[in-house]
Design goal:
Elements lengths: L7 E3 L4 H6 L4 E6 L8 H8 L2 H5 L2 E6 L3 H9 L5 E5 L1 H8 L4 E6 L7 E5 L16 E4 L5 H12 L8 E4 L4 H8 L5 E4 L3 H8 L2 E6 L3 H8 L6 E6 H6 L1 H19 L3 H7 L10 H10 L14 H10 L19 H4 L6
Parallel strand pairs: 2-3, 2-4, 7-8, 7-9
Antiparallel strand pairs: 1-3, 4-11, 5-11, 6-9, 6-10
Helix pairs in contact: 2-11, 12-13
Length: 335
């Protein structure tokens, strides 16, 4: 599998396959499996935690979170590994889904601009008329880019948001000057800085950076499913959450190098294993150590989406219906 491949990767292999035989099956589509912000999904597989929890997971990679959400609604996959904010947007569209575990306390996203534009672009206030790289239309990077423009008095309609994916395709877009700036995550950030392709405009890999850019805690990576699936498959959801709570604890107890040792080599092939591990060490704080939704997070996400998203703006959103801590609080973490 390449860093941005879009096909499935099985959640069971070798010795774990036997353990998972007969276990309930679930397919989860992740909006960019090789991104460090989605690390818990593959790490849980590599640690054998799905099998230990008693669930047979099939992971599928989809470069854009918006497309993953569409696949979930169409019944092509059971759940999505993506940003929590999609649940708010879906409710605004009259659909019902919910996050069952919060994996990231902050976005982990970085806004980079081309090196040749350094000094010309100093903030999103300079974005009018520019081409901005996002993973795809309707993705969380699309949401955040529109909000940052709006917050800095730039009408998002005056920018050109282009879906350029992540990893190699994002880097190519910068190098070929198809985009002026763009939002992405590790390990792509480290690779861009290493080869001098771009510079950091905004950094949301820290709590301080996230608050400065977005005004508060912005819970990002989560596992979300339709409310109908959650209500009808509570045992399966609990098994999944048991595996992920265990994975989040494992992340906190291990170094970037130890985590990198568990990951497939193609996850760090572009940037190098040492740089991949270093990036993990520097941004380990993005991972939620408990899985509990940050108390002020949903309100921040709603404020961001309400600023520009027509599906949410002016709507009455029932935030407690967009997430649940029920399964995390009842979790028996796998180890």
């Amino acid at each position: 599998m390449t860093a941005c491949s879009s096909k499935a990767t099985s959640g069971t292999s070798g010795s774990t396959a036997k353990a998972a035989a007969g276990s309930p099956k679930i397919t989860i589509m992740v909006g960019g499996l090789s991104k460090q912000i989605y690390l818990p999904y593959m790490l849980a597989q590599q640690l054998g935690y799905y099998a230990k929890a008693g669930v047979n997971v099939k992971l599928q990679n989809e470069p854009a979170g918006g497309d993953a959400t569409k696949n979930m609604l169409a019944g092509q996959v059971d759940g999505v590994g993506g940003f929590y904010d999609h649940n708010i947007a879906l409710q605004g569209q009259g659909k019902s889904s919910e996050s069952v575990i919060s994996m990231l306390q902050i976005p982990g996203e970085v806004e980079l601009c081309r090196t040749d534009l350094k000094g010309k672009i100093t903030s999103p206030a300079d974005w009018k008329g520019l081409s901005l790289g996002i993973t795809d239309t309707g993705s969380s990077t699309d949401f955040l880019s529109q909000y940052l423009a709006t917050k800095n008095n730039v009408d998002p309609a005056t920018t050109h948001r282009k879906g350029v994916g992540a990893g190699t395709t994002f880097i190519a877009a910068l190098k070929q000057k198809a985009i002026d700036c763009g939002m992405t995550t590790e390990p792509t950030v480290s690779q861009i800085l290493k080869d001098g392709t771009g510079f950091i405009l905004l950094d949301m890999r820290t709590a301080a950076g996230s608050r400065a850019a977005l005004g508060g805690t912005y819970p990002a990576t989560s596992l979300y499913l339709t409310t109908g699936y959650v209500q009808g498959h509570k045992e399966v959801v609990q098994k999944l959450v048991n595996a992920y709570v265990g994975t989040l604890k494992w992340i906190q107890a291990h170094s970037g190098a130890e985590i990198a040792d568990k990951m497939p080599p193609d996850y760090y092939a572009g940037v190098g294993k040492d740089a991949y591990a270093k990036a993990l060490d520097s941004e380990k704080g993005i991972f939620n150590p408990t899985g509990i939704m940050p108390p002020d997070g949903p309100k921040t996400c709603l404020a961001v989406l309400s600023a520009f998203n027509p599906a949410v703006k002016g709507k009455s959103i029932n935030l407690p219906a967009t997430y649940t801590d029920e399964f995390v609080k009842a979790a028996q973490p796998v180890s």
